[in-house]
Amino acid sequence: VEDRVEEAKAEIGQMILDMADHAPPYEPVERAASLGGDSDDPILFEVAIFDPHIGMLSWGKEVGEAQDTDIAVNDFVAAGRHLLSFARLYNTERILIPLGNDLGHVNSYLPGGKGAVTRMGTPQDVDGRTARIFTSIRRACVSLIDEARLVAPVDVILVEGNHDPDEMFKLGEVLYAWYRNDPEVTITYSPRKRKFYNYGACTFM
Known about the structure:
Strand content: 15-25%
Mean pLDDT: 87
Oligomer: single chain
Order of helices and strands: HEHHEEEHEHEEE
Distance between the termini: 41 Å
Strand order of the largest sheet: 1-2-5-6
Shape: globular
Radius of gyration: 18 Å
């Protein structure tokens, strides 16, 4: 137990250092003109990356594909960059990023800290402590949002999955504090099961 407490303290300390390194105020962005699209017909561009399950551990020889926290984070960031490359081809007015949908693989520890589980208590094979997994998720999300805001103003909505709903609410708190002074980024999160987003005549749920 003492080892886990010390590890958690170290992760929190590292998070504070990361925030200190990332503390400069966000300035309004001077964006390059879009490469295409009708200036009279702007669009909403959605960057939706479902089921990353960051923190999952698997052995390729056993299940066909290796997976760990670093692999999942790298895949998440690469997918985000790939999708954003298309946003630059249109007259993108805003970018919608739904975060969640099992962004993380687990929600908490079993009683006694013997293993990590989903919200319903299903044990999972995980790569590292939940504190390390959460920090990796936060870094990946900040990287994605920072790149997206260079293209257009960003609206982020936290959407819980069945694996990690409590962790996603915490992530919403962190991201809201992170971007609280950034006029280019809006973070929306709540304990509600359903989230709604309106753009023009369309409603996303």
